[in-house]
Specification:
One of its GO terms (biological process) is intracellular protein transport. It is found in: Late endosome membrane; Lysosome membrane. One of its GO terms (molecular function) is actin binding. By secondary structure, this protein is of the alpha+beta class. The strands form seven sheets. Strands 3-4-5-6 form a four-stranded antiparallel sheet, with no helix packed on it. Strand 23 (about 265-270) and strand 24 (about 280-285) form a beta hairpin.
């Protein structure tokens, strides 16, 4: 039977503690935490990391990244730091992130990286720069304490109600203190700092020298200090290797312990259990952790390189023992059990006396979906051992298609790789396989492979449209896709050919393809385009100017503008342009030329199929009211009022509207009656309305 207290460690005479993993962090850190500014909010709040902070060994061009995670490592925000160099990070009691810059400006961000506000710690801080900073919590709120380059302290006990306080000067202080912290006593914030063997307490009025009671002799410097979260207890680490623990008021000593280590610790913090009087200080060095209770006993851990031990066990094929150690130490699966199982699987594939199916099954049963395990890596080891079929079977268990495909291509299983790439839905992966297949297979086999994979065929066609037009034509020919072949030759006639003869020949090929596809409309339209191209070339030879590649309508318009109305009319007849469309084209062109005489002749050549209101509108568009009035009189009764209003004859428009007894027309004319000049016309319309109502 297991001993229930096996994982508990003594702390003092009457207390025990244990360390176990509550949960695994979900983050994927790219840098060591030691290379980041880190701030963890109290009570299991968010964690802020400032990647690539300003350090001498870092390139100046590297832009820092501020990232915020939940307490379990879930990413909440990530943003490039675009402001100045940051000295310190800390969280307020309201879970706002305070970023203290070197120039004394404090930027405040929300939990999700949203910028809230900023404030300055004063001109003196700006001039002397920030050497060090602390964010602390009091009953009044969250505060900021600054140590400047002039070795003076400035603080604000509540950033929500900013009131800056410049602390008294420390006599003879010529360099930065070896350590310092903030204390809260008598409802006020104080600074405790160490200068050599001396401790000084700064309040709002004075600098006082203080001495810890019962401190062991021989201390020449204090290397680290830590105050408890409640500000009731203080721990001091001296250069003699002693840890002094007592009250923060420095009136009572709790204990003193010689840890036999004189190097300054990386970190020292207080810890305690809720509703318990047991207190302890956790001290951390580079590869050592020590828990010191408030009695002269301690428990010490050396952070050994467990990975070295595990690697040696793996080399000796002691996999079960390595796994037991991982489980006992509760290492994350990716670093522990999963890594050991992956090594075991790579060894398993070398057992050639076991069939491929049995090996693959055994590996999958043992590994399952273990996090961090790459079946493609194991399959690659199998392929390296000459077991290609086993490698393929192992790849079936690999959930990431992007990991399957490269190895399949390496193993010359390109068609299977194509199927896997298509299953993944990753078009870039499919293109990778297609280009590999194209270089590996002859043209006929390559096309046949594509025919069996519609998605791959479609993607390859898209590729060919931009990169290999001739290959695209071959694909259409192989599939007897005459419709697409016709469209291909249409595009080719414009993109590749400059000579009219070559373009006409390409269009003829397109028309033949459309006929084979039984698309007579497309075929006839292509033949019409061939006729138009030939005619346009002839017009350029005979008349000069530019006609080739104009649309049919633009060709007619260009002929009219050039004074070749007869040719325009002949072209319209040849291509069966409807009369209404021809009249619109000719009307617009003559108006653009401002050839009013020719326009009048044209209007009288026969009855207009589009009426005469367009003539009025076009003339007014050209700001020629005189010509517009000529056509207003010829407009039919149903559009007469609108025509008269266009030329500004409001009175006559009113007469016509009254004669028509049309309420809509009367309303329209009234809307054009503006000013005193049209008052009589407006009265006339109102009388006509009243008279109509009496009847």
């Amino acid at each position: 039977m297991d001993c229930y207290t096996a994982n508990w460690n003594p702390l003092g005479d009457s207390a025990f503690y244990r360390k176990y993993e509550l949960y695994s962090m979900d983050w994927d850190l790219k840098e060591e935490l030691r290379d980041c500014l880190v701030a963890a909010a109290p009570y299991g709040g968010p964690i802020a990391l400032l990647r690539n902070p300003w350090r001498k060994e870092k390139a100046a061009s590297v832009r820092p990244v501020l990232e915020i995670y939940s307490a379990s490592g879930l990413p909440l925000a990530s943003l490039l730091w675009k402001s100045g160099p940051v000295v310190s990070l800390g969280w307020s009691a309201e879970e706002e992130l305070l970023c203290v810059q070197e120039d004394g400006v404090v930027l405040v961000y929300g939990l999700h990286g949203d910028f809230r506000r900023h404030f300055s710690m004063g001109n003196e801080v700006l001039q002397n720069r920030v050497l060090d900073a602390r964010i602390f919590h009091t009953e009044f709120g969250s505060g900021v304490a600054i140590l400047t380059g002039a070795h003076r302290f400035t603080l604000s006990a509540n950033v929500g109600d900013l009131k800056l306080r410049r602390m008294p000067e420390v006599p003879g202080l010529q360099s930065a203190p070896s350590c310092w912290t903030t204390l809260c006593q008598d409802r006020a914030a104080h600074i405790l700092l160490a200068v050599g063997p001396d401790l000084y307490l700064l309040d709002h009025a004075a600098c006082s020298a203080v001495t810890p009671p019962g401190l062991a002799p021989g201390v020449s410097s204090f290397l680290q200090m830590a105050v408890s979260f409640t500000y009731r207890h203080l721990a001091l680490f001296t250069d003699t290797g002693y840890i002094w623990m007592g009250t923060a008021s420095l009136k009572e000593k709790l204990c003193e312990f010689n840890c036999n280590i004189r190097a300054p610790p990386k970190q020292m913090v207080w810890c305690s259990r809720p509703r318990s009087k047991e207190r302890a200080v956790v001290v951390a060095w580079e590869r050592r952790l020590m828990v010191v209770g408030d009695a002269p006993e301690s428990i010490q851990y050396k952070q050994l390189t467990i990975q070295v031990l595990l690697d040696r066990l793996v080399l000796r094929r002691l996999y079960p023992l390595a796994i037991q150690i991982c489980e006992y130490l509760r290492l994350p699966e990716v670093q522990g059990v999963s890594r050991i199982l992956a090594h075991w699987a790579c060894y398993k594939v070398q057992q050639k006396d076991v069939s491929d199916e049995d090996v693959a099954r055994a590996i999958n049963q043992k590994l399952g979906d273990a996090p961090g395990v790459s079946y493609s890596d194991i399959a690659a080891r199998a392929y390296g051992c000459g077991r290609t079929e086993l490698a393929i079977k192992l790849l079936e268990y690999e959930p990431r298609s992007g990991e399957q495909v490269p190895l399949l291509l390496k193993m010359k299983r390109s068609k299977l790789a194509l199927s896997k790439a298509i299953e993944s839905g990753d078009t870039d992966l499919v293109f990778t396989v297609l280009l590999h297949l194209k270089n590996e297979l002859n043209r006929g086999d390559f096309f046949m492979t594509l025919r069996n994979q519609p998605m791959a065929l479609s993607l390859y066609r898209q590729f060919c449209k931009h990169q290999e037009l001739e290959t695209l034509k071959d694909l259409y020919n192989q599939d007897d896709n005459h419709q697409e072949l016709g469209s291909f030759h249409i595009r080719a006639s414009y993109a590749a050919e400059e000579r009219i003869e070559g373009r006409v020949a390409a269009l003829q090929t397109a028309a033949d393809a459309f006929y084979k596809a039984k698309n007579e409309f497309a075929a006839k339209a292509t033949e019409d385009q061939m006729r138009l191209l030939r005619l346009q070339r002839r017009l350029e030879d005979e008349l000069g100017g530019h006609f080739v590649d104009l649309s049919l309508h633009d060709t007619v318009t260009t002929l009219v503008l050039g004074g070749h109305s007869k040719r325009a009319e002949q072209l319209a007849r040849d291509f069966r342009i409807p009369d209404k469309r021809l009249w619109w084209l000719k009307l617009t062109a003559l108006a653009d030329l401002e050839d009013w005489e020719e326009l009048e002749k044209f209007s009288k050549s026969k009855k207009s199929p589009i009426g005469y209101l367009p003539f009025v509108e076009i003339c007014m568009k050209q700001h020629n009211k005189y010509e517009a009035k000529k056509y207003a009189s010829r407009v039919g009764p149903e559009q007469k009022v609108k025509a008269l209003l266009l030329v500004g004859d409001v009175a006559q428009a009113a007469d016509v509207a009254i004669e028509h007894r049309n309420e809509a027309e009367l309303t329209l004319v009234l809307s054009h009656c503006t000013g005193t000049a049209d008052a009589a016309t407006a009265d006339k319309i109102q009388r006509a309305r009243a008279q109509a109502q009496k009847k």
